[in-house]
């Protein structure tokens, strides 16, 4: 029996700015990521629209990476033997989460204008993904307010498939992943796996595993309904106390605790690794500009470089997948 598709991956380079990906520190960071056993990166970068009510997505090369920056990192990852999922992500400049991009159902003019701009945006980067040989392409991330517009999203998928011939995925947010009617049009269903598995437990591995079992049952149901395999397009937890209860949190001031992060990694890997309907992880996130190894014992970000979670990931990514 052939080995099923399985992503041993990590998200790389989030919030990199123009020119930064071509700096030596970015290449060095990518090498360190490869050394963990990582076989795939989700190369995630942000591009703006002014507000969640704007109808234009545009390329702001003053801050956002240029096409040259993007191609450089894709080529470097391929040279190192890693696969690439190209993942352009909208970040509204008003500071609100992209999930709030939305218009009333009767506001057809606004929906048509926004999706026309979004299709052009997706096509542009899909062409880059095709030309650079990216193995995967992500057509959106946590676009909760727009997901009910099934016909529009199917047009996005059609446009992307017209220029890109690799694996097409979408990054649904945890909590509303079973309310998207077009997931069956994808090759792989991506989920943001920030499930609060520490809640109503004593924080033990056994307690976390019990909560992951509930998540597994839900995700298996989505797989059975739509067909494509499930994978975690994002998943992670900061090395900070309390983050097992809110692994999505990236801003709250919390004391350092690498044990919580390590337990999140261990249990998320253990819970899903052998499921035939599950296809891997793009963990969140490995910075293109790493903190120093000496700072690992004080860093409270999602990063795992030099922390206990890195040792856990190395062990699991060295394993064979059935």
Please provide a brief summary of the model.
By secondary structure, the protein is α/β, with parallel strands linked by helices.
Summarize the structure in words.
- The chain has 322 residues and is α/β, with parallel strands linked by helices.
- Helix content is 34%, strand content 18%.
- The chain is built from 7 helices and 8 strands.
- An 8-stranded parallel beta barrel has the order 1-2-3-4-5-6-7-8, surrounded by 5 helices.
- Helix 2 links the parallel strand 2 and strand 3.
- Helix 3 packs parallel to helix 4, helix 5 crosses helix 6 and helix 6 runs parallel beside helix 7.
- The longest helix is centred in the middle third of the chain and has 24 residues.
- It starts with 6 loop residues before the first strand and ends in a 5-residue tail after the last helix.
- The mean pLDDT is 95.
**What share of residues is helical?**
25-40%
How are the strands of the biggest sheet laid out side by side?
Answer: 1-2-3-4-5-6-7-8
| Series of secondary-structure elements, N-terminal to C-terminal | EHEHEHEHEEHEHEH
Biggest β-sheet description: 8 strands, parallel, barrel
Report the uncertain regions: none
Output mean pLDDT: 95
**Which class do the helix and strand fractions yield?**
alpha/beta
Distance between the termini: 9 Å
Radius of gyration: 19 Å
Strand content: 15-25%
Say how many strands there are: 8
Number of DSSP helical runs: 7
- What is the molecular shape? globular
